[in-house]
Design goal:
Order of helices and strands: HHEHEHEEHEHHEEEHEEEHEHEHHHH
CATH topology of the largest domain: Gyrase A, domain 2
Largest sheet: 4 strands, antiparallel
Distance between the termini: 26 Å
CATH class of the largest domain: Alpha Beta
Strand content: 15-25%
Shape: elongated
Number of strands: 13
Low-confidence stretches: none
CATH architecture of the largest domain: 2-Layer Sandwich
Number of helices: 14
Structural class: alpha+beta
Radius of gyration: 32 Å
Length: 465
């Protein structure tokens, strides 16, 4: 039979199509479980009234993760004090500060906090956005008064004398300088862990510190250059202890001793372990953002997306007839699949992120248009159904690949080199474009193969060919 290859392909396509539709329904229920929950409760109520023990099970659910502009929450701005850090190391110090604050906030289960580095004039700032946290005081406690740990070396007596004289003379710059100890590069940034120990001689509690590999090298260098001198340990700018260095210490261990109670030592050790800040920070701005405005904008964005989808569907059906219907069905598979990925990763949805998703829907339609136009061209050339479909997809693929690849590269660059709302837009657009390629090539092809036959290929209800 001349069309047996097409018949065989149609059978395979229809089998795959059943799997696609079942998967889409499951994904749709995972994305929007409310209809199933209502139906389940109604059915279980009827079963209970008839004393039937069987009950419909609950469907696995997972909420979307919304950003600050939708869910509301708290925004905090901190100023970083980089006075004791060389200009070449300031960017690295700010990155370390950001990582520590993120780690501390994540310990409290906040929904993907957004912690960003910003620059205002000569100041370096840290902006912390906590979605869903309405209590500013709670947010500040989450960041915590993490102690700033630093090691300082003893200044030469001549240098100390000069600084003290300047301070007595009223020199404003000298007032902020420690006359006895000079800052070093060794700070809590290089701390690996902290434990509480008991001094075997004095039986007083002390806090033992262990540095990472880089901190070990710095500590060894400090002790080597300070034999016979004191190295002071400062917490939040206040000296805790200033032991005399007897010899070079290469093991990367140090002890903080002082008038500690057991509880004080435990608190200090815990705070250091939770994240000793590489640079001191001070809170300069705090703001609580309500969710009502964000919810209104979210609803308008969703409505805009639905309206846009409706116009796209009307255009596709009007212009491409039944081929357009299949493109709309392919979009119906695309949408729950993308939203499923957003939930699973999970992606923090902001208004800009939703805009990226809506834009990706338009790009998914663009791929379907290319495919349908290529198939129409092959039909006009008199090709049979199987050849028209295969040639259409083969000729459309390079254009789809190249256009989407440029968008993918742009999205990756935006995600890596930007922050905030632009990064959220780039991520949702990237995911949407990747899924749209799958939808256009796999789902659309399966639909067309399943229903397009030799008898119907030239029917105007298909492609207006």
């Amino acid at each position: 039979m001349p069309f047996s290859p097409l018949v065989s392909e149609q059978k395979k396509a229809r089998t795959v199509l059943i799997f696609i539709f079942i998967s889409t329904i499951v994904l749709g229920l995972f994305v929007m479980p409310q209809p199933y929950s209502k139906a389940k409760n109604a059915v279980n109520g009827v079963l209970a009234s008839k004393n039937i023990t069987f009950r419909l099970p609950d469907f696995p659910t997972k909420p979307f993760r919304y950003g600050l502009d939708i869910a509301g929450g708290t925004s905090l701005t901190y100023r970083a004090d980089l006075a004791g850090i060389q200009a070449i190391d300031q960017s690295s110090a700010m990155e370390g500060l950001r990582d520590v604050v993120e780690r501390r906030v994540n310990m409290f289960g906040v929904q993907e906090p957004r912690v960003e580095i910003a620059k205002s004039g000569n100041e370096r700032r840290l902006i912390v956005e906590l979605a869903g946290v309405k209590d500013i005081h709670q947010a500040i406690q989450m960041i915590g008064q993490t102690p700033f740990l630093e090691f300082r070396i003893e200044r030469p007596q001549e240098e100390t004398k000069v600084i003290l004289e300047k301070q007595k003379a009223g020199d404003s710059q000298a007032q902020n300088i420690d006359p006895y100890f000079a800052p070093t590069n060794l700070t809590g940034r290089y701390l690996k862990k902290s434990t509480v120990e008991i001094d075997k001689t004095t039986y007083q509690p002390m806090v033992s510190l262990q540095f990472d590999s880089e901190g070990t090298k710095l500590f060894a260098e400090l002790t080597k250059n300070s034999v016979g001198k004191r190295i002071a340990i400062y917490i939040d700018g206040a000296p805790i202890s200033a032991p005399v260095v007897r010899e070079e210490i290469t093991g990367g261990n140090a002890q903080i001793s002082g008038q500690f109670t057991i509880q004080d030592a435990k608190t200090l050790s815990r705070n250091l372990n939770e994240g000793a800040l590489p640079v001191p920070i001070s809170l300069i701005s705090q703001q609580s953002i309500g969710a009502s405005l964000g919810a209104d904008s979210f609803n308008k964005s969703v409505l805009a997306g639905l309206i846009g989808f409706g116009f796209i569907a009307l255009f596709m059906i009007a212009y491409y007839r039944l081929g357009g219907v299949f493109s709309v069905i392919a979009l119906g598979v695309y949408t729950p699949l993308v939203l499923f990925i957003f939930k699973i990763i999970p992606v923090t949805l902001t208004l800009s992120g939703i805009a990226g998703f809506i834009l990706s829907i338009g790009m998914a339609v663009d791929a379907n248009i290319l495919i349908l136009e290529r198939i129409r061209e092959e039909i006009r050339k008199g090709k049979d159904a199987m050849h028209a479909i295969n040639e259409g997809f083969m000729r459309a693929w390079p254009s789809i690949r190249d256009s989407n690849m440029s968008t993918i590269i742009t999205s990756i660059v935006l995600y890596e080199l930007t922050t905030g709302i632009v990064r959220g837009f780039a991520l949702t657009l990237l995911i949407g474009v990747l899924v749209s390629m799958f939808s256009a090539i796999f789902v659309s092809r399966t639909l067309i193969l399943a229903f397009l036959g030799q008898k119907t290929i030239n029917n105007k209800i298909w492609f207006r060919a």
